[in-house]
């Protein structure tokens, strides 16, 4: 293998300086391997290629466990290959086995700083104030700088939702990479689109309120009213209606009350006092 400034061999003598101390300056990916390990021989060239491609955003450190058994024992290496990522002097994540390149990229991108993320953050700021053309320009600039940034599809989806391009947003959501399937932002946008769909051809909020006053058992009115509240940010009001719907009519739209509450939890990031309070109330009904 050719020499590289981004790939080094590490021993017990230089592990402290190269890996532990060095990880305060940039992430260090440590590949614990052995010559007899066929998956190790498959993985190592790919890791070296990525180290070159990422251009110094991380250092690849190779540890031959046959020669450095004490190091392997110190870091709990029980199977090969094992790859650990060090940041700020400690191992923060690891994977075992010869993963496909796409999964290794996803592993790295979870931890490595990406300059294009700053552009995407600016794009979100522009969306928040309705400057959609500027947001689109920033997203395209981020794409040109780093076309492999996993956040790009999410930024495009957020822009489509912000501009009210619902059909486009549904298409983008369906095409998100598998790595983003359970991303909190993707879950939040999926929940938001659920309530957008609920309001298709729905009457105004005042009319729905009047219908509920006349007939508290009007499940459709209650659900559509909750959707209105979600989209204008009244999450507590929406959760109260969805909880009441769950109590009264589990059969409505395939348990829409419960599923709607879960969508609101996703919109709120899955945590916080409001989520905890209504999750507990939902559980009391279920069990």
Short description:
Residues 1-113 form the Thioredoxin domain. Keywords: Disulfide bond, Electron transport, Redox-active center, Transport. Helices cover 58% and strands 10% of the residues.
Biggest sheet descriptor? 5 strands, mixed
Structural class: alpha/beta
The CATH superfamily of the largest domain appears as: Glutaredoxin
Number of strands: 5
Large-scale geometry: elongated
Q: Report the radius of gyration as a whole number of Å.
A: 25 Å
Tally of distinct domains? 3
Kindly provide the name of the CATH class of the largest domain: Alpha Beta
Intertermini distance: 60 Å
Low-confidence stretches: none
* CATH third-level topology of the largest domain: Glutaredoxin
Number of helices: 14
Instruction: Please report which band the strand proportion falls in: under 5%, 5-15%, 15-25%, 25-35%, 35-45% or over 45%.
Output: 5-15%
Mean pLDDT: 91
Biggest sheet strand order reads 1-3-2-4-5
Oligomer: single chain
* Helicity level: 55-70%
CATH architecture of the largest domain: 3-Layer(aba) Sandwich
Order of helices and strands: EHEHEHEEHHHHHHHHHHH
């Amino acid at each position: 293998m050719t020499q590289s400034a981004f790939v080094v061999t590490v021993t017990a003598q230089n592990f402290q300086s190269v890996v532990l101390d060095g990880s305060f300056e940039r992430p260090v990916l440590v590949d614990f391997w052995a010559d007899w390990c066929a998956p190790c021989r498959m993985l190592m060239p790919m890791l070296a290629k990525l180290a070159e491609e990422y251009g110094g955003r991380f250092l690849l450190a190779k540890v031959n466990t046959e020669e450095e058994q004490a190091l392997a024992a110190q870091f709990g290496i029980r199977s090969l290959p094992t790859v650990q990522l060090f940041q700020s002097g400690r191992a923060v994540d690891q994977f075992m086995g010869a993963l496909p390149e796409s999964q290794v990229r996803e592993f790295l991108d979870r931890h490595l700083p990406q300059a294009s993320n700053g552009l995407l953050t600016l794009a979100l700021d522009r969306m928040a104030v309705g400057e959609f053309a500027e947001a689109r320009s920033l997203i395209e600039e981020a794409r040109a700088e780093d076309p492999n940034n996993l956040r790009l599809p999410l930024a495009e989806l957020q822009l489509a939702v912000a501009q009210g391009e619902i059909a486009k947003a549904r298409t983008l959501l369906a095409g998100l990479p598998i790595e983003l399937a359970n991303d909190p932002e993707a879950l939040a946008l999926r929940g938001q689109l659920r309530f957008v769909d609920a309001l298709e051809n729905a009457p105004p909020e005042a009319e729905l309120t009047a219908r509920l006053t006349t007939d508290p058992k009007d499940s459709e009115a209650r659900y559509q009213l909750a959707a209105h509240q979600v989209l204008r940010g009244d999450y507590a009001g929406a959760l109260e209606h969805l909880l009441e719907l769950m109590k009264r009519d589990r059969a409505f739209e395939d348990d829409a009350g419960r599923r709607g509450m879960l969508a609101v939890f996703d919109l709120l990031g899955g945590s916080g006092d409001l989520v905890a309070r209504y999750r507990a109330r939902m559980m009391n009904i279920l069990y």
